[in-house]
Amino acid sequence: MRFYLTTHKRHWVRLTDKPLFLKSEHFVTAVKLGPAQGPYAVDSGGFSELQRHGCWTRSARQYVDDLRRIWEWVGPFDWAAPQDWMCEPIMIRGGTVGGQHFVGTRLSIAEHQRRTVANYLELRELAPDLPIVPVLQGWDLPDYERCVALYERAGIDLTREPTVGLGSVCRRQATREAAAIVTTLAGYGIRLHGFGFKTLGLAKVGHLMASADSAAWSSHARRRPPLPGHTHKNCANCIDYALTWRDRVLRGLPSQNQPILAP
């Protein structure tokens, strides 16, 4: 199981060989790109897109062009997420949570799932050579099972995919409901990637997933003093802190999970 550090600092790919998870937009805005030292995966930035606009502002063709540029200049990535549609209630109805404003798509979960599957099929047709992965979206377990069925009807056997993203779980990844979703889907033989999983979620179901990513190190650092010898106010943007946090998280997981989560 591969544990990716999520970061908005694109130049980190040149500084570490530990797995990193970065939004495509952070590469797209770069004038110059350098080769990666280690493995990395690419997030489409769907959460931010839907939160701010209630829809995707980039076409599938634009996204593929962005991915090709990243592949060429930074190096082959493990995989890239599609332009999926998250199914959190706040994403659909809109509103403000924790100071964050959500425009709201005003669409149904079923429509979000339909658009997620349709986008994956379009991206696969546009770029069959790129490792773009399918993502399961939903809110409760029956939703996710219906999403599996949507892929099946489209001719996609998710058990044959090396990675399948699990969306709309990160804000509740330590709950019994999320554990039931992961356990059930993993039981089907689907190799899941857990988007935005934190320590508690990893401890519960990390051993059932093929990979996971987390940006929790940054908020953790923001609430604490900087590392000894560091002169910045805090280490919320510090690669040394991120790598130290990652090592501590992996060491602190239950022993039966540690061999699975090691890079």
Furnish the topology, listing elements before pairings.
Layout: E1 2-6, E2 20-23, H1 24-28, E3 40-43, H2 46-53, H3 60-74, H4 89-93, E4 95-97, E5 100-102, H5 109-126, E6 135-136, H6 141-153, E7 164-166, H7 176-187, E8 192-194, H8 199-205, E9 211-214, H9 216-222, H10 239-252, H11 258-261
Parallel strand pairs: 1-2, 1-9, 2-3, 6-7, 7-8, 8-9
Antiparallel strand pairs: 4-5
Helix pairs in contact: 5-6
What does this structure look like?
InterPro entries: DpdA. The chain is 41% helix and 12% strand. The chain has 263 residues and is α/β, with parallel strands linked by helices. It has one domain (2-261): Queuine tRNA-ribosyltransferase-like (TIM Barrel, Alpha-Beta Barrel), CATH 3.20.20.105. The strands form two sheets. Strands 3-2-1-9-8-7-6 form a seven-stranded parallel sheet. Strands 4-5 form a two-stranded antiparallel sheet. Strand 2, helix 1 (24-28) and strand 3 (40-43) form a beta-alpha-beta unit. Helix 5 runs parallel beside helix 6 (141-153). The longest helix is centred in the middle third of the chain and has 18 residues, at 109-126. The protein is globular, with a radius of gyration of 18 Å. The relative contact order is 0.13.
Give me a quick take on this structure:
This protein is α/β, with parallel strands linked by helices and 263 residues long.
Q: In total, how many domains does the architecture comprise?
A: 1
For the biggest sheet, the summary is: 7 strands, parallel
Care to count the β-strands?
9
Number of helices: 11
Low-confidence stretches: 256-263
Q: How far do the termini sit from each other? A: 7 Å
Helix content: 40-55%
List SSEs in N-to-C order. Answer: EEHEHHHEEHEHEHEHEHHH
Helix-strand makeup class: alpha/beta
The CATH superfamily label reads: Queuine tRNA-ribosyltransferase-like
- Architecture per CATH nomenclature, i.e. the level-2 architecture: Alpha-Beta Barrel
- Strands of the widest sheet, in order across it, are 3-2-1-9-8-7-6
What does the overall shape look like?
Answer: globular
CATH topology group: TIM Barrel
Mean pLDDT: 93
Taking all Cα atoms into account, the compactness measure Rg is 18 Å
CATH class descriptor: Alpha Beta
- What fraction of the residues are assigned to beta strands by DSSP? 5-15%
